[in-house]
């Protein structure tokens, strides 16, 4: 059961920090607090919350054998990310007021509380802040953020293979998520669910015409396809700097800020990917009789071939249209969405036609 605890004192007061759950502990790295010094170069601080004792602890500064201020320790920053892969927490990106943005990869050993800078190769992402990062297996996926050198929002996806320590730029297919920063990206199964963030109405460059997307975009890491989430009537307000987590296969969104509304949020939303359509994963789909997996979508193998697009609905048509569901990013092609009910595949609510989000 999910429940709120009483307010706990002793922790850091920050925004745009990065936190990782490791067992019953939460490691929090850096972040921004008004009034603090972000011009003097100093080590990033690490706070640890024990979810059993409900107590905070601040780790002492790390001192290497070479010198107290070692380059393998990240400087204090905000807008960075942290993910857990095996026994290491990888901290990447972020910025401070003196050094600007960073693209050095740092590794924090959770047993020794020591820092290293792994040697990496490949297509290294440009320095940025406000991006997202999530771990899937032994890989870390970086999406979006605000790139310092290009001075613009990004919607690229970079992947770090933590086994080979090699970066790669993913050639994503489909209708991509909009350029943005300070969004969230959360993994369920083999898919990355992107929500919210700050974008610009006119493109990747910041023109002070901010918009806040409130639709979930889905990236399938198996097919490298961007997918649109099914349309729902009830949607949260668009926001940035919120938090997101998964629990029992559900996605939860909490808090955030919308500058256009000048509003801070304290609401909690739950998103259920579901079993059919674009919320399904490949393993779930292929185990069920009567379904097939095509183009990142779980479909009824026979019914999908009979659907054609007749505005504004997907309807049965003659002759059958093979592969109509493959073009999830188009606005004039029918996309089949099926659900699993009572042990068999049933047609969903007509069909869903993709669009930007």
From TrEMBL:
GO cellular component terms, A-Z? cytoplasm
InterPro entries (alphabetical): Kelch-typ_b-propeller (IPR015915), Kelch_1 (IPR006652), KLHDC3-like (IPR052637)
- Superkingdom as given in the UniProt entry: Eukaryota
* PANTHER family to which the protein is assigned, alphabetical: KELCH DOMAIN-CONTAINING PROTEIN 3
Give the signal sequence positions.
none
What's this protein's name? Kelch domain containing 3
Please give the Gene3D superfamilies that the UniProt record associates with this protein: Kelch-type beta propeller
The alphabetical list of record keywords is:
Kelch repeat
What is the organism field in this record?
Answer: Callorhinchus milii
An example Gene Ontology molecular-function term? chromatin binding
